[in-house]
Write a structure and sequence with these properties.
Blueprint (H helix, E strand, L loop, with lengths): L2 E6 L3 H12 L4 E7 L3 H11 L2 E2 L3 H6 L5 E4 L6 H10 L3 E4 L7 H14 L4 E3 L7 H12 L5 E9 L11 H18 L3 E7 L15 E7 L4 E7 L7 E8 L2 E4 L7 E4 L2 E4 L5 H4 L1 H16 L8 H20 L3 E2 L11
Parallel strand pairs: 1-2, 1-4, 2-3, 4-5, 5-6, 7-10
Antiparallel strand pairs: 7-11, 8-9, 8-15, 9-10, 11-12, 13-14
Helix pairs in contact: 4-5, 5-10, 6-7, 7-10
Bound molecules: 1,4-dihydronicotinamide adenine dinucleotide and (2R,3S,4s,5R,6S)-2,3,4,5,6-pentahydroxycyclohexanone.
C-alpha cells in the first residue's frame, strides 16, 4: 500500500521533494498539493496526478492525505505542523520547525499532550554518507575522545534577501543540528566572531561570520559561514580527537588533468551536494510513517536548534559569550 502525501509549498525544495517522492522514493505518492502561487501549484498537481487545494488547512484535513510535507516559507511552518498534529497526521517539516523558540515549544507540547511523535524536521545532513561515517568513527572510540571540530559552510552566493541574521538561523542551523547528533551532546554556550567583510556582499549582510560553540563536555567547535565564497558549495568538518583527526568526505567528482593542472569538480549548491541525503531522508521517513514509528530528527531537535540559533544571534549582537539553556527533555524524546 502506498503512503498518500500532501505537500504544502511548491517552491524550490517543495518541487524537489515532489520529484523525489514521484521518481525515487518507494511506497509513496503525492496526492495533493497547495501553494499561494496557485498557477504553478496547479500545474505541478497536474504533472504528478495530484489534486490542487486552496489552503494548507484544507490539504491537511483531506481524508485521502495520510501524511503531510511542509515546504512553505519559514513563518508558516508552525501553523501547519500544529494543524497536522491536531488531525493526528504524520508531518515532515523543512527547517526551521518554527521561526520562534516558543513556537517550537508549542509543537513539542502538542506532541507530548498527544503522547505520540508525529513530527520530523528536515535536517537532512544526518542522512549524508560522509557525516554517517564520521559518526561511526567517533562512536567506535578508536580515535579517543573528541576535542575540537573545525567546520565551514560555504555557499557560492546569496540573494539580496539573505541578511546577517540568516547566516546562523538559516545556514549554520544545519551544522548546529548535525554536530549535536554527531557528538551526542548538547551545547552550553555560543560566541560569534565577525571577520573582515567580503566586498562580494551587500549592506544588510555581514559575510563571513564565525560561530563558536561549546558542548557539555567542553568540546570546542568553530563554524565558518561564508555564503558568498564564489567558487562552490563547500561543506567541511574536521574532527580533532585525542589519537587522530577525521574529516568529512564529499561526494566524488571526476578530475580532469590538462595543461599541467588537475581540476576536480565540486558541487555548486546544497541540492547537488546533499542529493543522496535528501533521497535517503525521505525514503526513511516514508518507511517510518508506514511502520507507524518515527525515528528521524524530532520536534525536540527542532526546539534545541532554535534555542541555539537564538543564542548565536544574541552572541553576534552583543559580541559576548552567551550561555545556552535548554529545558528538560520530555520522556517522549529520550
Ligand atoms: P521557495 O520560496 O522557493 O518556496 C516556498 C513556497 O512556499 C513558495 O512557492 C511560496 O509561494 C509557498 N508558500 C508560502 N506561504 C505559503 C502558504 N501559507 N501556503 C502554501 N504555500 C505557501 O523557498 P524554498 O527554498 O523552497 O524553501 C522552503 C522551505 O524549505 C524554507 O522553510 C527553507 O528554510 C527550507 N529549505 C530547506 C533546505 C534544506 O537543505 N533542508 C534547503 C532549502 C530550503
Ligand atoms: C538553505 O536554506 C539551506 O537549508 C541549505 O541547506 C544551506 O546550505 C543554505 O546555506 C541555506 O541558505
Amino acid at each position: 500500500m502506498e503512503l498518500k502525501i500532501g505537500v504544502i509549498g511548491t517552491g524550490a525544495i517543495g518541487q524537489d521533494h515532489i520529484r523525489r517522492f514521484t521518481n525515487k522514493v518507494k511506497g509513496a505518492k503525492v496526492v495533493a498539493v497547495t501553494d499561494i502561487h496557485v498557477e504553478r501549484a496547479e500545474q505541478i498537481a497536474q504533472e504528478v496526478g495530484a489534486k490542487f487545494v486552496k489552503t494548507g488547512e484544507e490539504l491537511i484535513s483531506l481524508p485521502e492525505v495520510d501524511a503531510v510535507v511542509v515546504t512553505s516559507w519559514d513563518p508558516t511552518h508552525e501553523q501547519y505542523v500544529l494543524e497536522a498534529i491536531n488531525h493526528n497526521k504524520y508531518v515532515f517539516c523543512e527547517k526551521p520547525l518554527s521561526v520562534e523558540t516558543e513556537g517550537c515549544k508549542r509543537i513539542v507540547d502538542a506532541e507530548v499532550k498527544l503522547g505520540k511523535r508525529l513530527v520530523q524536521v528536515g535536517f537532512m545532513r544526518r542522512y549524508d554518507r560522509g557525516y554517517m561515517e564520521l559518526k561511526e568513527i567517533i562512536d567506535s572510540g578508536k580515535l579517543g575522545e573528541v576535542l575540537m571540530l573545525h567546520c565551514a559552510h560555504r555557499n557560492v552566493s546569496s540573494g539580496e534577501n539573505y541578511d546577517t541574521l540568516m547566516a546562523i538561523v538559516n545556514s549554520a542551523v544545519h551544522e548546529i543540528d548535525v554536530l549535536r547528533w554527531l557528538l551526542n551532546e548538547d551545547y552550553v554556550a555560543a560566541q560569534v566572531i565577525m571577520p573582515k567583510k567580503t566586498s562580494n556582499t551587500h549592506e544588510k549582510l555581514h559575510d563571513p561570520q564565525v560561530l563558536i560553540l561549546e558542548t557539555e563536555s567542553g568540546i570546542h567547535i568553530d563554524v565558518e559561514i561564508f555564503v558568498n565564497c564564489k567558487y562552490g558549495y563547500d561543506i567541511k568538518c574536521e574532527v580533532v580527537c585525542e589519537d587522530g583527526v577525521v574529516s568529512l568526505s564529499n561526494p566524488s567528482y571526476s578530475s580532469i588533468r590538462t595543461a599541467g593542472k588537475d581540476f576536480t569538480g565540486i558541487p555548486i549548491d546544497w541540492e547537488q551536494r546533499f542529493e543522496a541525503a535528501y533521497e535517503q531522508e525521505l525514503q526513511l521517513w516514508v518507511d517510518s510513517v508506514t511502520a507507524d514509528e518515527m525515528n528521524g530528527p524530532t520536534a525536540w531537535d527542532g526546539y534545541v536548534a532554535s534555542v541555539t540559533t537564538t543564542a548565536g544571534t544574541e552572541a553576534r549582537e552583543t559580541g559576548k559569550r552567551v550561555e545556552i539553556k535548554i529545558d528538560k527533555c520530555p520522556d517522549l524524546y529520550k
